[in-house]
Design a protein that fits this description.
Elements lengths: L2 H13 L6 E5 L5 H11 L7 E4 L7 H4 L1 E5 L2 E5 L2 H5 L9 E5 L7 H13 L1 E2 L2 E2 L4 E8 L12 H4 L3 E4 L4 H9 L5 H9 L17 H7 L8 H12 L1 H15 L4 H6 L10 H14 L5 H8 L4 H14 L7 H9 L1 H4 L1
Parallel strand pairs: 1-8, 1-9, 2-5, 5-8
Antiparallel strand pairs: 3-4, 6-7
Helix pairs in contact: 1-2, 7-8, 8-13, 9-10, 10-11, 11-13, 13-15
Length: about 325
């Protein structure tokens, strides 16, 4: 399932008060943790009532509590994380995000069973409106994931996460990811997530986000080494080559000065770079000239440009040029 499908499904269940526990499993670096956080944020739960817990880094006592002797009996004092999401009598929901559940050894999986099914951490009763989302990696990816016990797996709804380019691009357009990186991955979609457990460095949505933070002012050889350190040498070579194409594009202002006669490239790599640059350059004042130029491009590149443009500058949707283009290309948009 892709990001948007999992998000839609989980939110729909939660909206009806369903306390089904989704277990989002997929390749490392795909964005599972970000998805869990986005779902919890959409529920409007106060940050102080949200707990992230990584059982692979903890001990069973962190769930059961620390024993304390009072007179003739011992009581279990809960850890602060679970105490925050206890049944406190307040009619406000809580959330528990369980990170890397697949990495937890059996001694930690056992107490997690009761947390997930019975909403209890040891003797501590958890909130009746506790929403739980778990995530983990696959054992075949050699990322440290362990075999999950069948009794724990039977307490959750397993949702297999598949990276999706459209979802990633929608996120990237709102997250200050470089336009040339977005367009490159549209040009080479297989490199968005090319995970090989036999490689120590892989291109994944997470590693591309890391690559986006590399200083672009570095000398070219040093820049390449930094990108390769994030996504691997093969992907880095292709990306830096595409980046040179992007940087060598003709001036967009010059194209928009004479959109009916400006040269239209035929090379797909240049077209990907150009449509991204146009989308980021558009405004409600020049959108008529943008549409005049892209009308000369293949339809799929037109749609790509318009999609990005209205995502970046929503105000263009009210322009005559946008409405006219949408009517003219209604069959392509369906």
């Amino acid at each position: 399932m892709k990001y948007s499908d999992i998000e839609r499904s989980v939110k729909a269940n939660f909206a009806k008060g369903n306390l089904l526990v989704p277990y989002i499993v997929g390749k490392p670096g795909g964005g599972k943790s970000s998805l869990a956080r986005a779902i919890v944020k959409s529920l409007g739960i106060k940050p102080e009532r949200v707990v992230e817990f990584n059982p692979s880094l903890r001990d069973p006592v962190d769930i059961m509590g620390i024993p304390r002797t009072d007179a003739d009996v011992a009581k279990w004092v809960p850890m602060p994380e679970f105490y925050r999401i206890r049944d406190d009598g307040i009619n406000e929901p809580c959330a528990l995000i369980i990170e890397e559940l697949s990495d937890a050894p059996i001694p930690m999986q056992n107490p997690m069973c009761r947390v997930i099914l019975d909403r209890c951490a040891g003797e501590l009763k958890l909130h009746p409106k506790l929403y739980i989302i778990a995530s983990g990696n696959r054992t075949e990816d050699k990322s440290g994931a362990n075999r999950m016990s069948t009794k724990l797996g039977n307490r959750m709804q397993t949702l297999v996460f598949d990276e999706n380019l459209d979802d990633w691009c929608a996120w990237a357009l709102e997250s200050n990811i470089a336009v040339e990186m977005i367009q490159f991955l549209r040009f080479r979609p297989n490199l968005l997530s090319d995970f090989d457990p036999n490689r120590s460095i892989n291109p994944t949505p997470r590693s591309w986000e890391m690559a986006n933070q590399v200083d672009t002012e570095l000398p070219s050889d040093l820049y390449f080494s930094n990108i390769a350190g994030c996504v691997g040498e093969g992907a880095a070579a292709e990306y830096t080559g595409f980046k040179r194409i992007y940087e060598g594009l003709p001036d967009i202002d010059g194209i928009l000065l004479n959109p009916s006669k400006a040269q239209v490239p035929t090379d797909p790599a240049i077209l990907f770079a150009l449509t991204g640059a146009l989308a980021h350059k558009c405004s409600k004042d020049n959108f008529d000239r943008v549409t005049e130029y892209i009308d000369r491009l293949p339809s799929d590149f037109q749609v790509m440009c318009i999609y990005d443009a209205q995502k970046i500058k929503p105000e263009i949707r009210n322009t005559k040029a946008f409405i006219a283009w949408s009517v003219k290309n209604a069959s392509v948009l369906m």
